[in-house]
Each structure stands twice: as C-alpha cells, then as structure tokens.
Amino acid sequence: MALNTKTQRHKDTKKGRFESYLSGLSLCLCAFVSLCLMPSVSPAQGTYTLDQVLAKMDEVGKVFRSMQAAIERTKVTVIVNDKSVDSGNVYFTRRGKDPRIMLQINRPEQQRMLIDMGKAFLYFPKLKQVQEYFLGKNRDKVEFMLIGFGQSKEDIKRAYNSAILGEEVIDGQKTSILELKPRDPKASALFASIRLWMDQQRWIPVQIRTTEAGGDYMVLKFTNIKMNQRIPDSVFDLKLPKDVQTIKM
Description:
Blueprint: H1 2-37, E1 41-42, H2 50-62, E2 66-77, E3 82-95, E4 98-107, E5 111-116, E6 119-124, E7 129-134, H3 153-159, E8 160-170, E9 173-182, H4 185-190, E10 191-199, E11 205-212, E12 217-227, E13 245-248
Parallel strand pairs: 7-13
Antiparallel strand pairs: 1-8, 2-3, 2-12, 3-4, 4-5, 5-6, 6-7, 8-9, 9-10, 10-11, 11-12
C-alpha cells in the first residue's frame, strides 16, 4: 500500500511538472504569435538606400506643381499624456518660389491656416478671429510641415542630416522611413526630428511625424493624395466675414 502511494506521488509530481512545462510552452507560443502579429518595421538595411530614396524624391520634386489630400492630424503632449485628433484637407502649391498652403480643419471644430504671399493666417470661424503672422526671411522654411512634397534632394541635404530607419507598411502601402534632423541650431531647438513614411510607388509621404525638442510630437497622415492637379485660387481664400477680428502677431 505504501509502495502504491509512493508511486502515485511520483506520478503526480511528473504530471505537475509536465503541466507546468505545457503552461510555460503555451505562454512562449502566445508571445511568439503576438510578436508575429505586430506591425513590422524592417531593419535599416531595407530595399532602398538613403541615396536611392533621395534620388526618387528628387525626380518627383522636379515635376511638382501641386498636391491636395485628406489629412488626419494627431498631436501628443507627452508630459501630461494628452492626445488630440482632428481632420480635414490640405492644399499645397507655389506662387513663384513662395509656398502657398491651405490647411482646412473641419472636425471636431473648424480652423483654417493659410500661408501665402509671405504671411501666415490662423482663422478660427467660431471665434470670428484671425491671427496674422509676417514670415519675412522664414517664408521658405514653412514647407517643413509638408516636407517630402516637391523639395529637391539638394534642399533636403542642405537643411537636414538624413538617414533611412527601415521600412513599414502603412495602410497596405510599403514605405521607406526617412528621418531628417535639422542642421540649423535654431530649427533643431524647436524640432528634434522629422520622419517621413515614403510610399515606394509614388515617392511621396503618406505620413509625417515631427518631434519637438521636448518630446511632444505631431503626426500628419495623408489619404486620397492627388498630385499636380490644378487647384483653384478660391481654395486659398479664407472668406473672412466683415466683422472678423484681426490680430497681428
């Protein structure tokens, strides 16, 4: 009887070890599957080198006339873990060498940002208020918010230290991730880096992330991108009401 009890205990111990082994194996398998299902970012040695990506962008820049797209803008304030999302449309062309940009935010509240003729305007229809900024010598630098649309590789190399971080699939589109870090100390004090997810078919960004020196960041995601189509002048009209309050900054 004692022998049977000892044998049974031995079997129970083996059974317990086996169940523990199966449990550990199951956890490892779940972890492996989870890793496999995570969005993949390929290592830096991707399909395209930095020079190849910049050359592709340069080809697009040479024939650039305009871009328009639907846009989703996500702002994240890291220190308070605050996140805000809005959406609308963006239009970009040039008047000579000067950028002409209209950002129309429609949700959750209407806002308008116009860059034209060396000035920037922020219009808040609900408040009936427009803020006016004179850009002066910085008028050519406002394109940073739409970097990757129409700039030459010489422009990018002159203004940024650049590197390829790898590849990633965004909404079914295979992209090369290009990181830009401003060379100008004044610019780098504001923005630590700009990342572009460059569509490997059209060589335009489908997503841009700008990270501030303090860690806060903004992500612009573009969909329904249309290149080099005529944009009517009326798009760049804020259509301000007569009783709007203008504040010159």
